[in-house]
Amino acid sequence: MKDSTLLVREKIDYSEARPIATPIFQASAFRSGDPNFYTRNTNPNFEDLENLLAKLDNTNYCVTLSSGMAAISSVVHLLKPGDELISGSLIYGCTYRFLSDFCQQMNIKLKFVDLSDLEKAKSTITEKTTMVFFETPTNPFLRIIDIKAISTILKSRNSNAWVVVDNTWATPINQKPLNFGADISLYSGSKFFSGHSDVIIGAVTVKNKLLYDKIKKYRFYHGAVPDAFSAWLTRRSMQTLEIRLKRHEESIRDIINYLEKQPLVSKIYFPEIDGVQLKAYGCLLFFRLKTQDYSHVEKFMNTLKLFDQGTSMASVASAVANPFNGSHLSMSEAERNDIGLDEFVIRLSIGLEEVDDLVADLDFAFSTIN
């Protein structure tokens, strides 16, 4: 063969190779006859991650997507004009804005309600409700929404309706929504799954093949696929998920014990763990700074050395955020006030650093506030 042909066609046949670690299938297309014919349809790295996530959520069906927001979009696209969506009011700010805009454009009736209050849920969910969507623990404030109770209420009024749980903050290690009556569980895998602030990816697990086919069709035609490397990184990181969660949980207990004695903290928000729906919880908490001067919030956050300021969380590195001016900024000020969120609420994401170092860092930051 001539050089130009060699450059293109010369390859070693690795079909007999049996690596211990799954390789990265960095390919846009596969040879004729391979079921993975095109990566916009599927890819072995997607399937490897999907197989694991499906098993963790006690189902056979999972679809990975390009981000957590793509996962949410794929699910709400199950709705059609004239349907009714009831959403928990305590959800990620971008989700709140997306649902508001999408439902308005698609002529879908939308209601936001605090679904941690079952009386409000009972009075809002009707036979016209097509889907109920929520995060639990909630975002912000980490309230618990009873998945089984919400599912029972909805199915008693519309047996064909869907219960959708954003399970990002609990993870399937600590909470399995499909076990409690949810039809769909979705994730931003950029958080706990990847765990290192280096991946954007999403996932949806569902109870049945009909929903699976619809979500996968959405991914194919909207091009909402992750890339092979992101799927590979996430699958690799999942091997340490349970170990990381246990370390998060141990450290956050010490952080809470410290904050409870801190006079500049007026309230701590952390979920009630019943051991049934929610088996355990760690990493994230919210607290309210005892001040009416926002400059104190800024000074506290800017003084911290071991807490990165950013929009994400659930990484090996600790982080601090002001949700009012960060994760929920896409909501109007009135909408933020309606859910009880103001600029004096601070979110901490506790990483894997030595907890004594984190406490010392927090202690010094509090000491700078007069």
From TrEMBL:
The keyword NADP does not apply. Belongs to the trans-sulfuration enzymes family. It comes from Candidatus Thiomargarita nelsonii. Pfam families: Cys_Met_Meta_PP (PF01053). One of its GO terms (molecular function) is pyridoxal phosphate binding. GO terms for cellular component: cytoplasm. InterPro entries: Cys/Met-Metab_PyrdxlP-dep_enz, PyrdxlP-dep_Trfase, PyrdxlP-dep_Trfase_major, PyrdxlP-dep_Trfase_small. One of its GO terms (biological process) is transsulfuration. The modification N6-(pyridoxal phosphate)lysine is found at K191. Keywords: Pyridoxal phosphate. The keyword Protein transport does not apply. This is Cystathionine gamma-synthase. Its cofactor is pyridoxal 5'-phosphate. Coiled coil: none annotated. PANTHER family: TRANS-SULFURATION ENZYME FAMILY MEMBER.
